[in-house]
Amino acid sequence: MPKNRLEAFTDAVIAIIMTILVLELHEPHSDTFQALMTLAPRFLIYIISFFTLGIYWNNHHHLFQAVHKVNGRVLWVNSFFIFFLSLFPFVTSWISEYSNSLVPEITYGVVILGANLTYYVLARTLVASEEDEKASIKELFGNYRKSYLSIGLNVVGLILGVLVAPIAVLLVNVVILIAWLIPSRKIEAYYR
């Protein structure tokens, strides 16, 4: 089946998630800079979540540019990917309310781990399902080092969050975010 509906649906869902994410930011309780500064941790966590979602959208977009058709398995894996992304407003709100608390931090890390795992499975499913275009898709997305690194760092962040300090989960996910901000040279060259 054509990929257009899946791409349009995913784009719409991510846009809605990002909109809901900003709705969780509430105005200060007074009209002073001091009141605004008390919201700084919430803004920081919002920025981290917003750009994490943006990176997922960007990578999803690149992934599907190289694909012409999808099958039922791709639809289901994409649905699980969207499921984890849909939890971002909840975990972002919770972690911003209780920053450096174990359960919210671990939950945030598990949601990101779930999104990373399902994105990885989605890429592998697309590589496996595209017979006629397999060479170009496999060439572009067949190297999963960045995904392996992200998933491994997610697990390390969760362990550090439990054993050292809950904030380690968020800090490790910022490192992952920075790693994904650097675009793949192969993909950039392919789409020129």
From TrEMBL:
Pfam families (UniProt xref): TMEM175
Q: Which UniProt keywords apply?
A: Ion channel, Ion transport, Membrane, Potassium, Potassium channel, Potassium transport, Transmembrane, Transmembrane helix, Transport
- Catalytic activity as recorded in UniProt: K(+)(in) = K(+)(out)
**What is the recorded membrane topology of this protein?**
Multi-pass membrane protein
Subcellular location(s): the record lists: Membrane
Spans traversing the lipid bilayer: 6-23, 35-56, 76-95, 102-122, 155-182
Membrane among the record's keywords?
yes
Keyword Transmembrane helix carried by entry: yes
Homology family: Belongs to the TMEM175 family.
Q: This protein is called what?
A: DUF1211 domain-containing membrane protein
